[in-house]
Amino acid sequence: MSWFISQANAQQPAVVPAEGGHAPTEATGTTVAHGGGEHGGTFPPFDPSTFPSQLFWLAIVFIALYVLMAKKVIPQISDILEARAAKIASELVEAERAKAETDTAIASYEASLAAARNKANAIAHETRSKVAHEIDGRRHAAEAQLAAKLADTEQHIADVKKIALDHVSAIATETTEAVVEALVGKVGRDEVTAAVAAVSVGKH
Q1: Coil, strand, or helix at residue 27?
Q2: Could you give the angle at the alpha carbon of 39 between the alpha carbons of 34 and 43, nearest 5°?
Q3: CA atoms within a 13 Å half-sphere pointing along the CA-CB vector of 148
Q4: Phi and psi for 37 in degrees, rounded to 5?
Q5: What span, in angstroms and rounded, lies between the C-alpha atoms of 33 and 63?
Q6: Which end of the chain lies in a sparser environment, N or C, as judged by fewer CB atoms within 10 Å?
Q7: b/e string for 48-57 if b means 16 or more Cβ within 10 A?
Q8: Residues 125, 131, 133, 138: what is their CA dihedral angle, to the nearest 10 degrees?
C-alpha cells in the first residue's frame, strides 16, 4: 500500500519557481530538463527498485486467490460434479431397473402366450376327440338301430310271405276244388288239399 502512495506522490507535478517573475515551470518524473531539454524516467512496474513490493503483493494476491479457489470455487465445482455423477448413477440404476422390469414383463407375456397356445391346442385336441367319440357312438347306435330295423323288416317280410303263401294255398285249394267239382263232381276237401300241397312241393 505504501508503494502505491509513494508512486502517486512521485507522479504529482513539482512546481519550480521561475526567475524574473516568469510563470512556474512544472517538473515531471525524476529529471527536469532545463533550457528546452526532453523529459526522462522509468515506468514504475519496470523499475527494479519496486520489484520487492510487487513480488510481495503478487504473493498476497496469489495466496488470496488460492484460498478463495480452495474454500469456495473448487468445493462448489466438486459438489456440482458429485451431484451430476450421483444423478447420472441414479438414472443408470433407474434405467437398469426399467430394463429388468421390461425383460420380466416380456418373459411373462411370452410364457402366458405359450401357455395359452398350449391350452388352446389341448382344448382343440380334446374337442376333436370328444366329437369323434360322439360321432362314433352315434354311428354305432345308428348302425345297430338300422340292423334291428332290417331284422324286423326281414321278419315282417317272412311273416307276410308265410301269410301270403298260406292264403295262396287256401285260394288254390278252393279254386282246385271248384274246378274239380265242376268237372267230375263232388270231391273231398282233404284230397284237393293233398293234391295242391303235392303240386306246391313239386314247384319248390
Answers
A1: strand
A2: 150
A3: 6
A4: -75, 170
A5: 43
A6: C
A7: eeeeeeeeee
A8: -170
* Predicted local confidence at residue 159, as pLDDT: 84
Number of Cβ within 10 Å of residue 196's Cβ equals 20
What does the block give as the cell for 36? 528546452
d(CA 187, CA 191) in angstroms, rounded, equals 7
pLDDT value at position 189?
65
Total residues found in the chain within this entry = 204
Beta-carbon contacts of 172 under 8 Å, excluding residues fewer than 6 positions away, are 196, 199, 200
Residues forming a β-bridge with 14: 27
**Amino acid identity, position 135:** I
- Cell digits for 61? 494476491
pLDDT over 50 at 31, yes or no: no
**Whether this model's pTM surpasses 0.70:** no
Angstrom distances, CA of residue 169 to CA of 165, 172, 197: 6, 5, 8
